[in-house]
Design goal:
- This protein has 399 residues and is of the alpha+beta class.
- The protein has a domain of 197 residues: Ribosomal Protein S5, domain 2 (2-Layer Sandwich), CATH 3.30.230.
- Helix content is 41%, strand content 21%.
- It has twelve helices and 13 strands.
- The strands form three sheets. The protein has a six-stranded mixed β-sheet with strand order 5-4-6-3-1-13, sandwiched between helices.
- A hairpin with a 7-residue loop joins strand 10 and strand 11.
- Helix 2 crosses helix 3 and helix 2 crosses helix 4.
- The radius of gyration is 21 Å and the shape is globular.
- It starts with a helix and ends with a helix.
- Bound molecules: alpha-D-galactopyranose.
- Alpha-D-galactopyranose binds next to helix 5.
- The site of alpha-D-galactopyranose has 11 residues, from helix 5.
Amino acid sequence: MMLKALRTALPDAEYMAIAPGRVNLLGEHVDYNGGAVLPAAIHRTIKVTAKPNSNRLVELHAVDLDESTIFSLDQLALKQDIHDMPMPGWAQYPAGVAHVLQSHGYPVTPIRAAFTSNIPMGSGLSSSAALEVAFGALWQEIGGWSLSRLMLARLCQEAENLYVGVNCGLMDQFASANGVEGHALYFNTHTLDYHLVPIPDDYWIVIADSNVRRKLTHSGYNDRRAACEEALAILQKDLPQIRTLADVPPDVFDQLAGNLPPIVEKRARHVVEECDRVNRAVILLEAGDVRAFGSLMFETHRSLRDLYEVSIPELDRLVELAASLPGCIGARLTGAGFGGCTVNLVEASATEEFITRLKLGYSMATDRTADVFACRVSRGVDAYPWNWNTARMEVEESG
Ligand code: GLA
């Protein structure tokens, strides 16, 4: 009952924004290396309601955590609340977005706001990006200025890079801003072009949350990114024309791999092969060869486990179990890794049984419980004027 709680928190709300999380089908850890990715927005969302304030303050209430904070739009760089105390971690996402919007000259309206989410936090389904994109779209709607969805995503990414301090790529914010029902987005993170790829009707995307929350993600993520930058700098000595690791064909990489320190070589090999895999995979998917696409998902998991080293035993178990179940044609960890979720491609008729058996197998193998659910691919962010008295609650509740 997300909406009831929101209504209680801010009964006089005048605006609503809804932003989805995302699942990534293929192309992991390549969005900061100029590669193409294949994410889809999912029906798990963050909902924010807001009302403009007459002072310079932003007053936020995180309904699910039952926590609040107040900060000033004139002192965002300090990352402090109005009592000069550090802002709670979750508040840095909206505050970062406000900071970046202001620094690019977009006026940010002071607000009272409340938000709630059914995207599990720290699970690799981009709850942070959804939070950023929801607030970005909200301030855009209230401010009446216009910004493309791509630009909105880029500013939200900037907030996460510069304000929150995670050196992420653009995939998550892009998917949350641009999602389209029933479609994955084949997004080239170098040219910023994209096109839609329909998800075949006879397969379901099933998400399995290991319920192991990510640890050391920030440092683990930033380390991987630094290794990629090191690899690029070394490879550019022989290949001055390359701008990103995505420009290096796998056979050329093989010839030069010996120039790289061993760990850097592993990281870069994953990236080079993954970029190539996504480009092959999308052709297969568009040609209707969903099974061949699925086997590339398994390959990606092995590469993330052995070369990029961002998997954990629980995610490996989930993928092994999935591979052994009828109807599952592809499975791998999704998102940054270090915990979180797997994404599975399952024949529609086998989905129910798959979910039951995966849960059972996981609890027997690990003594943990997995949340496993079939996922509807939904649209990207939306923001609009809102009035609780005239709201179509049943429609919004399902969004
Ligand atoms: C996180 C980041 C993304 C991307 C993925 C890994 O979700 O936010 O930019 O790098 O990890 O593919």
